[in-house]
Write a structure and sequence with these properties.
- Pfam families: DUF3159 (PF11361).
- This is DUF3159 domain-containing protein.
- Keywords: Membrane, Transmembrane, Transmembrane helix.
- The chain is globular.
- 71% of the residues lie in helices and 0% in strands.
- It has 10 helices and no strands.
- Helix 3 runs antiparallel to helix 9.
- By secondary structure, it is an all-alpha fold.
- The protein has one domain.
C-alpha cells in the first residue's frame, strides 16, 4: 500500500454500469453500508461540523445512556445480590426495554434500542444458562470478532467497507477504486476500525479468561466503548470529507 509518488493517477477505463435488474453485489453492499452509516449519523455528504456528526453518531445523551445503563444496572445488581443472577438479568433487560418503549411511544425509529435490547437479552439468557455472571460479556466478544474480521478482510481484498459506504453516500459508486489515493485512505480507515474491535477483544478477553472481577471487566468495556468509538468516527468523517472536498469545490 506504499505510495509511489503517483497518488493522483487514475485508471480512466470506465466502469461497467450495474445492470438495474441484476445489481452488482458491490452496489448492494455499498447501499447497505451507506444507509447504515446515514442512520448512525455519519454522512460525509451532510455539511455539518465534526462535533455535531460525532454527537449524532453516538446518539447524544440518550444514545450514551442506552448503551451504558443496562450494563451498569447488571453490574450493580450482581454486586448487591451476587447469588441472584435472575434479578440482575431482569433489571438489565428491563432497562434496555424501557428505552425501546420510549422510542415507540415517541414514534421514533426503535432500531438502535431494539438492537441493544436484543444484545442484552441474549447476554442475559447466556448468564442464566451457564450460571456465570461473567458470561454476560461473551456476546460482545463474538461481536468484536465478527466486526473486526469484516473490516479487516474488506480492506485486504480491496473492497473496504468504509469505501463502499462512502461511495454510496458521496454518489461515487465504486469509482473510488480507480483512484490510488482513495483506495489507500479507505484501506487504512477499514484497518483502523478493525483495530478498534480487535483491541477491545485483546484487552477484555484475557481478563475474562483470568476470571478477573466482573466489575473490572465491565469498567474496561465501558472505557473502550464510546470513548474510543467517538474519536474514530471523527477521523473517518474528516478523512472522507477531505477526499471529496476538491470535487465539491
Amino acid at each position: 500500500m506504499a505510495g509511489d509518488g503517483r497518488d493522483d493517477e487514475r485508471d480512466e477505463t470506465p466502469l461497467t454500469p450495474p445492470d438495474p435488474d441484476h445489481p452488482r453485489a458491490s452496489a448492494v453492499l455499498g447501499e447497505a453500508f451507506g444507509q447504515a452509516a446515514r442512520r448512525a449519523g455519519i454522512d460525509p455528504s451532510d455539511h455539518a461540523t465534526t462535533g455535531k456528526v460525532v454527537w449524532k453518531a453516538i446518539g447524544g445523551v440518550r444514545g450514551i445512556v442506552e448503551s451504558v445503563l443496562p450494563l451498569v444496572v447488571f453490574l450493580a445488581a450482581v454486586t448487591l445480590w451476587p447469588d441472584q443472577l435472575l434479578i440482575a438479568v431482569i433489571l438489565s433487560v428491563a432497562a434496555a426495554g424501557a428505552f425501546t418503549l420510549v422510542r415507540l411511544a415517541q414514534r421514533q425509529a426503535p432500531s438502535a434500542a431494539l438492537g441493544g435490547l436484543l444484545a442484552v437479552a441474549v447476554a442475559g439468557a447466556l448468564v442464566l444458562l451457564t450460571g456465570r455472571a461473567e458470561d454476560n460479556f461473551i456476546p460482545g466478544f463474538i461481536t468484536n470478532v465478527a466486526y473486526g474480521s469484516a473490516f479487516l478482510i474488506s480492506a485486504f481484498v480491496g473492497w473496504s467497507i468504509i469505501g463502499l459506504a462512502a461511495g454510496f453516500l458521496m454518489d461515487d459508486g465504486i469509482r473510488w477504486r480507480q483512484d490510488r489515493h482513495k483506495r489507500r485512505v479507505f484501506f487504512w480507515l477499514a484497518v483502523m476500525w478493525a483495530a478498534l474491535f480487535f483491541a477491545r477483544l485483546a484487552v477484555q478477553f484475557p481478563l475474562w479468561l483470568a476470571e478477573v472481577d466482573i466489575q473490572v471487566i465491565g469498567t474496561v468495556k465501558l472505557v473502550m466503548g464510546i470513548p474510543l468509538f467517538a474519536p474514530l468516527v471523527a477521523v473517518t468523517w474528516l478523512a472522507v470529507r477531505a477526499l471529496y472536498a476538491r470535487r465539491e469545490s
